[in-house]
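Retro notes (design track)

What went well: tokenization of the new backbones is finally stable.
What didn't: we kept losing track of which sequence belonged to which structure.
Fix going forward: every design gets posted as structure first, then sequence, in one message. First example under the new rule, 264 residues:
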């Protein structure tokens, strides 16, 4: 593993601040998978138009801007949007000019953009909080140009028994077998999704499923405050997670699913 100019460890795509193993695994695996799908669809060096709907603090949006793409970030939470703007302000001018940040909801894409405005649309960690997820996805699909890529990250409903079961919470595990609802790290009750149902939804909005991955097969249940291991151990962990996320049956019990649909 490399280091950046400030001495921070670099995992694949960005410097990593110690103290966030779960998020490091999530962001790194999604980045690898997304880059793989982009590389398979577009010529090397092509500057893509990318929309990140519900971008959070902008981790993926800024990474893609650094790679040369033009990125629009849409975020409803003012605190998260502020954090993204502060991160963007530290980037060189050439990167800042490729990024546009807007406050807004993923359901409002029709207000801000014309249909077919983007080559890639990201919707990562948003669907579980949406009151009308099918309508949200249909609106995002309309933003894609023909052949465009929709990248969707959701909580895996088929794995809701895993985290409590591995922690010895047998009542929680038994509940997880029957439920599509779970409590996030803040205690908020949110929805998980099933691969088969989302496959049907993506086909219905003319962005049928092209590829899918598991994210956090082995590390989903670790506490959020666990820091990073030594560099060589982290490399092995990421290699194992990357392989499991592409391999049956392991990817089917990942905490998160990363689905990639292609606009017809």
């Amino acid at each position: 593993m490399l280091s950046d100019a400030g001495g921070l460890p670099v995992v694949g795509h960005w410097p990593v601040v110690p103290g966030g193993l779960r998020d490091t695994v999530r962001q790194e695996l999604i980045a690898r998978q997304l880059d793989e799908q982009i590389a398979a669809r577009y010529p090397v060096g092509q500057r893509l138009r990318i929309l990140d709907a519900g971008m959070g603090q902008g981790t993926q949006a800024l990474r893609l801007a650094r790679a040369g793409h033009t990125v629009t970030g849409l975020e409803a939470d003012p605190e998260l949007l502020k954090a993204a703007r502060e991160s963007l302000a530290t980037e060189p001018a050439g990167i800042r000019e490729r990024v546009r940040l807007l406050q807004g909801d993923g359901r409002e894409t029709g207000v801000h953009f014309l249909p077919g405005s983007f080559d890639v649309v990201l919707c990562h960690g948003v669907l579980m909080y949406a009151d009308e997820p099918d309508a949200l996805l249909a609106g995002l699909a309309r933003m894609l140009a023909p052949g465009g890529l929709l990248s969707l990250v959701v909580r895996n409903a088929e794995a809701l028994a895993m985290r409590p079961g591995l922690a010895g919470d047998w009542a929680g595990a038994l509940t997880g077998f029957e439920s599509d609802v779970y409590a996030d790290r803040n205690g908020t009750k949110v929805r998980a999704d099933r691969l088969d149902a989302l496959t049907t939804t993506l086909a219905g909005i003319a962005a049928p499923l092209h590829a899918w991955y598991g994210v956090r097969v082995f590390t989903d249940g670790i506490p959020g405050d666990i820091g990073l291991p030594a560099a060589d151990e982290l490399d092995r962990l990421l290699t194992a997670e990357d392989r499991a996320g592409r391999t049956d049956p392991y990817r089917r019990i990942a905490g998160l699913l990363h689905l990639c649909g292609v606009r017809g």
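Added context from the reviewer: Confidence is low (pLDDT under 50) at residues 1-9, 14-19.
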